[in-house]
Amino acid sequence: MNPILERIKLLAENEGITITKLELIIGASKGVLTRAISHNSDIQSKWLLNLVENFPAYNCEWLIKGNEPMILATDFRNNVSESDVIYKDLAESRKETIESLKKVILLLEDKISVNEYEKL
Predict the structure, then answer these.
(1) CA 117 → CA 3, 82, 110, distances in Å?
(2) Which residues pair with 71 in a beta bridge?
(3) Which residues of 52-86 are buried (b: 16+ CB within 10 A; e: fewer)?
(4) CA 15 to CA 70: how far, in whole Å?
(5) Which of 3, 12, 14, 97 has the most CB atoms in a 10 Å sphere around its CB?
(6) Nearest 10 degrees: CA dihedral of 61, 26, 16, 60?
(7) Closest by alpha carbon to 6, among 57, 91, 65, 54?
(8) pLDDT band at 7, cuts 50/70/90?
(9) For residues 6-45, b (16+ Cβ closer than 10 Å) or e, as one string?
(10) pTM score, two decimals?
């Protein structure tokens, strides 16, 4: 079986939930992970991202690469690990980049429309 899928199963087992419940938590359609596990197929990266966001105690590198530890050490003073902060900052930065690129795409689409109109 795909090692990432094996680790997803381990995460669910460790949380004491079913794969179906895990799908619900990450916002996946019923059967997305179940089918991937039963057919040993790949899953979309958005489901991995949703797993990392919904289960921040789990090491992202463990989920993807199998690097130990499975569970991140946390700073119990504020209950947030250093990795959580880094990944949240990275996620926020990527969201900003995506929004910026969406604006660029809209501008380029407008330019294309104007150029096509001028050709007529």
Answers:
(1) 52, 53, 10
(2) 58
(3) beebbbbbbebbeeeeeeeebeeeeeeeebebbee
(4) 12
(5) 12
(6) 10
(7) 65
(8) very high
(9) ebbeebbeeeeeebeebbeebebeeebbeebbeeeeebee
(10) 0.59
